[in-house]
Specification:
By secondary structure, the chain is an all-alpha fold. It has 18 helices and no strands.
Length: 404
């Protein structure tokens, strides 16, 4: 395919993935707003109120590698459609759990929603499948920018549905199920060819043990894990902290809306920044902004403190995660694509699972008032930010390998 045709196909697929991120992606912000509150309503123990959110992330971690393999065999479209079907089933089971008052069924339903979360993580990689190298950073950024629409539609749908029925949040999960039914319509326009089967005697790339010794792959994965996990750690607790500090659920929805806006709005220019300054400096800037979010949250619990901290949290995630993704795409060979992507996202969502599981314990069981739990959540960011920053510096200071 000539460069002009490749570029046209790339931007067509980017447009479809932006639409998917905008429409289907709204369900993630909806679940993160109400999941902890619904879990707190159903949970037999407040220390595990955020377990349903953790189970969704665990579902993402468990699904990442099998889903990558499924897409390798059946194509991106088939994998994305499968995830929408399972997410719709998960939302239906969540609604049933709310009717029955069953916390454990509610937690199990989140595992199925996690498959969609894993699939959405692959949107950014799908944008590069047919893309010439010079436009890959912009393709990744623009796909993630689709979350800008979801930043408004998700919280808006929560405000419209959270108290629309006698059972809180029942209509919210009904709306999530309906959103996933739009998946087949959107992905019908995706034009990414199914990967060709590996011919006998053809190399399938380096073995996993060797890939895990590639410094760029390891550092990119660590930075992606830290960026995503810390964002999730704080975001999961934010609605609980706000309600615990006397604010209303609608206030939490507005704050999360601005947070999601900050996650995706910078994507319009993040790719250009990476192209100009390099991926590693942008990742380091993202880590610094995440530290600023934690410092702001520790400074007070007024509405302004929550708002500023969550905006900085979203901005830091954007730079850290897009920069890490770009680093990763430059560290593997084409035949290693699905294997490395699946490994990376399994590690990332594994870290996010541990972060979301820890979030509820730090928030509700640290002792004292809601402010104490909120402070514990934000202090927990520090060692991981130091780890990721040290990994980046180590990579920058390593002597460059001589080309063979």
């Amino acid at each position: 395919m000539n460069p002009a045709s490749a570029a046209r196909r790339t931007w067509r697929n980017v447009s479809v993935l932006i639409l998917a991120q905008s429409v289907l992606g709204a369900q993630l912000s909806m679940i993160f707003i109400v999941g902890g509150l619904a879990g707190q309503m159903l949970s037999p123990n407040p220390c595990i109120a955020t377990l349903p959110l953790s189970m969704m992330v665990l579902g993402s971690a468990l699904a990442a590698r099998p889903l990558a393999g499924f897409m390798r065999s059946h194509g991106r479209r088939a994998g994305f459609l499968l995830s929408c079907g399972l997410a719709a089933l998960g939302a239906a089971l969540a609604a049933l759990a709310l009717v029955w008052g069953n916390f454990w069924l509610f937690s199990f339903s989140a595992l199925l929603s996690g498959v969609y979360m894993a699939a959405q993580g692959f949107f950014r990689f799908a944008a590069t499948d047919c893309a010439p190298p010079e436009i890959q950073p912009r393709a990744i950024s623009w796909v993630l920018a689709g979350g800008l629409v979801a930043a408004f539609t998700g919280p808006f749908l929560v405000r419209m549905t959270a108290e629309a029925t006698a059972i809180p949040f029942l209509a919210t999960y009904g709306a999530i199920a309906l959103l996933n039914l739009l998946g087949p319509v959107i992905f019908a326009f995706l034009d990414i060819p199914r990967p060709a089967p590996v011919a006998a005697g053809t190399s399938s790339g380096r073995p996993l043990s060797e890939l895990l010794r590639v410094p760029q792959i390891v550092v990119a994965t660590v930075c992606a894990m830290v960026s995503y996990s810390l964002m999730n750690l704080v975001m999961t607790s934010a609605p609980l902290a706000m309600v615990g500090c006397g604010f209303h659920t609608s206030d939490a929805a507005v704050v999360v809306s601005f947070h999601v806006l900050a996650m995706f709005a910078p994507s319009f220019f993040t790719g250009h920044l990476i192209a100009r300054f390099g991926a590693a400096p942008i990742v380091m800037l993202g880590l610094a902004i995440l530290a600023g979010a934690g410092a702001t949250a520790l400074a007070g619990v007024t509405l302004a403190h929550f708002q500023i901290a969550m905006v900085l949290l979203g901005l830091g995630w954007n730079f850290g995660f897009i920069g890490s993704t770009t680093m990763l795409t430059r560290a593997y060979r084409p035949e290693e694509r699905e294997r490395v992507q699946g490994l990376n996202d399994a590690a990332v969502f594994g870290g996010v699972f541990l972060a979301s599981l820890s979030s509820g314990g730090l928030m509700n069981c640290i002792g004292g008032e809601a402010r104490d739990g909120w402070s514990a959540v934000n202090l927990a960011m520090l060692p991981f930010l130091v780890l990721a920053g040290a990994a980046l510096l180590w990579l920058a200071l390593r002597p460059r390998e001589t080309a063979r």
